[in-house]
Amino acid sequence: MESDAVPIGRRVAYWRARRRMSQQVFADRLGKSKSWVDKVERGARALDKVSTLREIAAALRIDHALLLGQDSRPADAATRIEGVEVIRAALSAYDIALDRPAARRDVPDAARLARGVAHAWTSFQHARYPALLGLLPELLAGAQRGHAHDPKAGRVSLVEAYRVTASLLVKLGETELAWLAADRAMAVATGDPMVVAAATVQLGQVLRAAGRTREASTATLAAAYRIGQADLDVVRMSLCGTLLVQAALAAARQGDERAAAARVDEAADLAAEVGDGNDHYRTSFGPTAVALARVTVAIELGTTDEAIAQHEKAVGRDGWRWLPPEHRAAHLIDAGRAYLQVADPVNAARVLLEADRTAPAEVRHRPAARTVLTGTVRHPDAPATIVALAASLGVGSA
């Protein structure tokens, strides 16, 4: 699919098939008829409107440059998609339930599984996404076998494997598959309130990414208040606070300023008790994490000047450098979005370049980051440094 000579209709058919969508499902997503899709893919109907191309690319979750044969890094895109498809296969395997021989082989011991999970989370927090794509299928298979062999001993490792999988898939824009991983985590976690709370963090992320903000708010608040009823140690406070942050982000996405502010304030009270530099249940929760959440809430609510002021204050905190590279780079991309909203491409470029230095995969593999990058380079005052980065990634200014 790398040649410009391939007709655009063939490209549409190729990517639709890679996304496992029928023509009817694809047509429904576009608000078109199945016949319209069929004509496009056969080349009987021309695609000569930029707006239509963008709608198709959005439905396929790819950069529209791929449809035009203009992406300069098709091999990377193909490698990423292949990795996602292997994860899809791992999540779609039912060998355990069907008692197939493969399900009974090579059951890893609990210690080895725990090490594998820890390595996967470290890879995620350092934004080593391509490497993690290669690690996860085997980790998922091993964790599933371990849980089947000893459900009690294997529960946490399997939930954590599903959690890190969901986190990565949300980053890559694979929301539906991320939802499957998060749902699996919730099902396995059932019966242990703390493990359920940990799984609900990813469920909240997935639901927000899917536009299900009301459900995200309801689920995260319920999990937070459930574990908050007991005496709170720093582990419970970290989980409870992280869930409150997720609820705040969901409320902000709905435009509910009052609820968002209340949830962030509750989280801030817990963060003051926890302090910075902790990473219980891979939450990185603390005062700096809450400060960054306030920035995202302000961006979602459209109070951009406030968001920028809070961002510039938050990154000066001592706790900023203690956050994982993935967390810092993700925040910098959010900050880039805020600077774009006030037509400041110079500072948008500055934070994007800093994000690229901090965790390159955040900028190079996340569709959300590419959107901010595209908006930055299209501005007439975009610095040459960001234009060069965009060109190297196949993100055009046209």
UniProtKB/TrEMBL annotation:
Any Pfam family the entry gives: HTH_31
Residue span, HTH cro/C1-type domain: 12-67
InterPro entries according to UniProt: Cro/C1-type_HTH, Lambda_DNA-bd_dom_sf, TPR-like_helical_dom_sf
SMART domains named in the record: HTH_XRE
Protein name: Transcriptional regulator
Annotated organism of origin: Micromonospora lutea
Lineage: Bacteria, Bacillati, Actinomycetota, Actinomycetes, Micromonosporales
